[in-house]
Amino acid sequence: MLTPIQTRYQKLGPKVAENLKKRYFEAWYFVDTARALEKLFSLIPAEHTVSWGGSLTVDNAGVQAALGEKGCTLIDRDKAATPEERIELQRKALLSDTFLGSVNAVAESGEIVNVDGFGNRVAAYIFGPKQVVLLVGMNKIASTLDDAMVRARKTAAPLNMQRFGERDTPCSKTGSCGSCSSPDSICSYITIMRLCKPAGRIKVILVGEDLGL
Questions:
Q1: Which residue in 73, 122, 169, 201 is a FRET match for 176, CA 20 to 30 A apart?
Q2: Angle at CA 140, nearest 5°, toward 73 and 101?
Q3: In a 3-state reduction of DSSP, which class is residue 180?
């Protein structure tokens, strides 16, 4: 028997996918992660060079290892030996064939909201890689664009900051956003993707489960 949350997700997910399509994103809704990953892997040819931004959703799903086994060439910034090499790998990722990630929030109307500390993740989403594939749990759906902005700033960012250990930001210390201008802030760049151009470049896979933060 489905829980109330699962029932809501099954009713809402297809609607959000249709609204994303109206904004020229490719979009699908799947009830569980296993089926969603089948779709994700079908979108990425073995000959593709693949990279990704910081995403707990993608990391937890084990996508990178599976793509390596598939034969894809991976650009992994975490394998850098120095900060300079890490930046260079992040720059190379902007010209990858496929860039993977998730989002901080999606409005039911189809707009996608992200906050980013250094900008490499949202930069790749907007321009550069041939295609972007986003794996998104239904816990990231917000009723309106304003609600999506609040979720990204007030929920996702403070939660993500806890992953990074103690930093000099209000949300690191208190768990609540303080709209800071700290050098440690991970809210340097706030983006709204309201249309996908060229059409279909960004592919959104919605999953009827709670994934990531």
A1: 122
A2: 10
A3: coil
For residue 188 the two structure tokens come to: 């340097």
Q: Which fold has domain 4-207?
A: Rossmann fold (3.40.50)
Residue 1 in this model has a pLDDT that exceeds 90: no
Q: What is the pLDDT of residue 165?
A: 82
All structural domains of the chain with their residue ranges = 4-207
The per-residue DSSP string of 120-175 comes to: HHHHHHHSSSSEEEEEEEGGGEESSHHHHHHIIIIIIHHHHHHHT-S-SSHHHHHS
**AA letter at 77:** R
**pTM for the complete prediction?**
0.96
- Supply φ then ψ for residue 189, to 5 degrees: -125, 125
> Is 4 exposed, middle or buried (CB count within 10 Å of its CB: 0-12, 13-18, 19+)?
exposed
